[in-house]
Design brief:
With about 170 residues, the protein is of the alpha+beta class. The chain contains six helices and seven strands. The chain has a five-stranded mixed beta sheet with strand order 2-4-5-7-6, with helices on one face. A two-stranded antiparallel sheet has the order 1-3. The radius of gyration is 15 Å and the shape is globular. The termini are far apart.
Amino acid sequence: QKMKEIVTNFQAFVQPSSDERTEYDINRIVDDVLWLYKKYLRDNEVGVAFNPQENLPRIRIVKDQIHQVLVNLLMNAMESLQEDQRQITITTRQGEDQVLTVIEDTGKGITEEDLENIFEPFFSTKPEVEGTGLGLYVSYMIVQKHQGEIVVESEHGKGSKFTITLPIS
């Protein structure tokens, strides 16, 4: 099962279902992800607030790859949540010449030591049977391939904030 997850993650990055870039509205992609995972989030008692900036410029992307990045970050955020605070906030906004997507959680946060390695392949803070250590690495590589940037801010015990920056078409 673990090997299957590793191979699937690598295939998604190396051989995506399409490699054709098309112009998209990031808000639609976030909506799609939230719609697909609505029941899963509800069943796990996770509150999600989506704060989209209206009329964002389009970004030229491979949709399924950016979709995967958002799913990876959403699932990581959900898994980090603690029993008493189960909230994720997704915000989109326009920067100077880019579109930003911010995913914040009220989870357990990431230690300073782990922050240094968070985007390294096979690095994981999850128990060995739960993670492959490839989700954030693959997400990082996808965003880089789109000439974008992904950064994380976190304080252990107080949640995390991942910001994806992608250039405007």
